[in-house]
């Protein structure tokens, strides 16, 4: 695993862990709940990726410092955030970063293992969305991927293809990974800001 | 993998994908949601089967045409079904076909890998019911396997044993697979038609 | 696998299966539902453990007598418990035993495979809590691990570390396993009895 991939993985883990801890605190969970949700959000997508692609040992078992970091974050977060609840809308940015990082890393691993672009893009979307979907399900929210809301999974899918094309054109992993993940994170933030949707309901659910 | 198995797998995937897309549309999901639910319903059971039996690569990674087919179906379905919502009761037939196909294919793979009839029947039931259970959970329905409703999982279990006995008696895979899956699909349709249950509640929940 | 580990595994399976069947009956499920919930509760945690640690074949596939035992228990339980519903509070003891056994067995397998104490304790907590979390989710209860309630996952975590220290000090697996699991089961029962919590809400949810 290259240094770039490792660095991105750490960024994605921190971002998704923060998003999970914010939701857990907004539900007034105790420190163990905050750690658990942070852990599952940060590591769920990558674990699914490694299980489906038979890539053992699962990455956080090989990199012990990653769960230790999440544990430290949960302790700090629980005490720092004791007084007030954080508004849940604050999760949009960390969630967009985590979505970008893990979509691209999932797709990159799949390419490395010799899968086709189409299969790699599906595995990218799964890796990027599964942690957040577990977070929302466990906290009794509808996962973003199923909300009739601003586009989410389709950005992850498009970003994977942008990564493939860059990689095929430039043959430079660092550039391609960066372009792909910036695309996902920025477009997701714009989609939330300008309320971009695939479909508008005339009938409200 | 024999041609018969491949053909049946495609039938099961199409049937389960249709059942997932009908439920997703009845919840008014956008095209990405329709694809996601169709994909998870069609491929969830088989993925669980391959993970538990350590049968890598997972089948739809090896057979790229299967997720591509589901994608094409989702696009057609989303636009064709734009105007009206489909009644959810329409899913009974595709769900029964998917249940039959995947139960038998799960049991067949387990036999091939040398497991006993009992273990193979459990793996058959898991493979047959897991995709539909994910579909119903993600769409906020109670999964069939937990409804106090017409028999479901027990038909899948019985069908697996009928398949084993046929296979042991005739030594002809095509015949045995067909008998087993027809049993499950037909009995399930009859159970819904004539309201066959294991237990009737005097006290309504 | 040593005899002690096998014996403990059977105790944990029986305890968790009973806890699952009690909840399933209290929801008035039919015999198939009772078996399914009992099966998932008893074998869910260990299956997750074996998948994440790539420990194949999954244990209940290797030990066919375990699912057969659960099937027999479900048949007996469904008919014996036909008349009255069991109060759900009865699950605290079997759940505490299952939590203790599977936490320690998950941690023990991880140590055996050469993982660090920290990783092994995480895998222990996952193995101990996942079956019960599936049971509660499938039966529409909030899983213990997310309830703002008496301590649960933290006891499992502490018990794993007590097991490591015993094992490192005494080099006697039977003693260490017993001390670790007794700690978890007894402390969990005391926590419920004396209402020990990590955090008290001033604001009720």
Automatic annotation (TrEMBL), chains A, B, C:
Subcellular location: Cell membrane
Major site of localization recorded for this protein: membrane
InterPro entries: Gly_transporter
Entry keywords, A to Z: Cell membrane, Membrane, Transmembrane, Transmembrane helix
Domain Glycine transporter span(s) in chain numbering: 7-79, 94-167
Transmembrane annotation, as ranges: 6-24, 31-48, 68-84, 91-111, 117-138, 150-170, 176-196
PANTHER family: INNER MEMBRANE PROTEIN, UPF0126 INNER MEMBRANE PROTEIN YADS-RELATED
Protein name, per record: Glycine transporter domain-containing protein
Organism of provenance: Marinobacter salinus
